[in-house]
From TrEMBL:
Gene3D superfamilies associated with the record: Heme oxygenase-like (1.20.910.10)
SUPFAM superfamilies, A to Z: Heme oxygenase-like (SSF48613)
UniProt cross-references to InterPro entries, sorted A to Z: Haem_Oase-like_multi-hlx (IPR016084), Thiaminase-2/PQQC (IPR004305)
Stretches assigned to the Thiaminase-2/PQQC domain: 79-217
Region of interest called Disordered, as start-end residue ranges on this chain: 314-333
Name of the protein described by the UniProt record: Thiaminase-2/PQQC domain-containing protein
UniProt biased composition (Basic and acidic residues): 316-333
Swiss-Prot/TrEMBL GO biological process terms: thiamine metabolic process
Superkingdom, taxonomy of origin: Eukaryota
């Protein structure tokens, strides 16, 4: 089951981060709780999430109109979700730029260049294998497991919500540290999974919609036995933040990261709400002719990442009837 590839990106980028010398545990140690399907305490995230001073943004995020109404199967909300999916595609393009800029903050050993090389490869593969695949999923007919969005619907301007969020990412990529640039992931990875799990367990959630398939179900893990749980990407991010906090601790940085956390949740809500805004068609074309949309590709998940999922024991964590239903589940975030 594949939703927006936003969720794929952090698991593998955080995996690379966790093996950087002097920046926390190695992969085997940091991911032991995930391999054994254990639930570790979300120490860093819980401190931010449960802070009474942050409840205004947490509640607004968890009860945003788009997710709540689309989960119920509201027709207007489902159409809004399609517009949101277009903006999420634009966000992913801007996210790719963020990852390029973030690379400059990577702490690494000058004599162990393989870590730098791995992170660079992770960045480069994200463009086609994640951004391109989300476009493919968007334009694929609903009868074939896609969202059924007309390619012409991408010929629109970015919403103010998307622009604001992307600029926040890019500005922080130029000014924040490596650890803070992972705090910035809490909203769209851990937070998404938190909402999805809540909606999955809600009785009046309509399980027949594209929103349930491509957003709710895609953002949680459903083991063959047992209860649904937070997505592996959310758990991996939490492990990374917990284990590396001591290397990046200071009173000033703690205050700054709380500001980042609050702003990220506000921007997430703004992007959700922008799905109800009127779209503005582009009035100009790219130099040399009309706008050319991305060419659909095979939509496979890279071999290295399939191997990593198997290493974590996550291959069996999806419903078997999800296989290939949206074109990418021989291997999803």
């Amino acid at each position: 089951m594949v939703g927006s590839p936003r969720l794929w990106l952090p698991l593998f980028s955080v995996y690379e981060d966790s093996v950087v010398a002097a920046r926390g545990p190695g992969a085997d140690e940091a991911y032991d709780t995930i391999r054994k399907n254990k639930r570790s305490a979300d120490k860093v995230i819980d401190a931010l999430w449960n802070d009474p001073a942050n409840q205004d943004v947490v509640v607004a995020f968890m009860t945003n109109k788009l997710c709540v109404e689309a989960a119920k199967g509201n027709a207007d909300a489902i159409e809004a979700f399609k517009k949101y999916a277009v903006q999420d595609y634009f966000y992913l393009i801007d996210w790719f730029k963020f990852r390029v800029l973030r690379l400059a903050t990577l702490p690494h050993d000058d004599f162990k260049l393989e870590k730098l090389k791995d992170e660079l490869e992770s960045v480069s593969t994200s463009l086609n294998d994640y951004v391109g695949h989300w476009y493919d999923t968007c334009i694929k007919p609903e009868s074939q497991g896609g969202l059924g969005i007309d390619p012409g619907d991408f010929n629109v301007e970015r919403t103010i919500g998307e622009v604001a969020y992307s600029q926040f990412l890019l500005n922080n990529a130029r000014s924040s540290d490596w650890y803070s640039l992972h705090i910035i992931l809490i909203g769209c990875y851990w937070g998404w999974s938190k909402i999805a799990l809540q909606l999955y367990c809600t009785e009046d959630t309509d399980r027949s919609t594209i929103f349930f398939k491509h957003w709710i179900k895609a953002n949680i893990d459903i083991p063959p036995k047992g209860e649904p749980q937070m997505a592996e990407s959310a758990r991996a991010l939490s492990v990374f933040l917990n284990e590396n906090q001591k290397f990046w601790a200071s009173e000033a940085l703690t205050a700054k990261r709380n500001e980042i956390f609050r702003m990220v949740l506000r921007l997430e809500v703004g992007l959700f709400n922008s799905a109800y805004d009127d779209v503005v068609k582009k009035r100009v074309t790219t130099p040399g002719g009309p706008i050319v949309m991305p060419v659909p590709h095979s939509g496979h998940i890279p071999t290295r990442e399939r191997q990593w999922r198997r290493l974590l024991g996550l291959e069996a964590g999806r419903d078997s009837d999800d296989a290939d239903e949206d074109g990418m589940r021989s291997e999803k975030i």
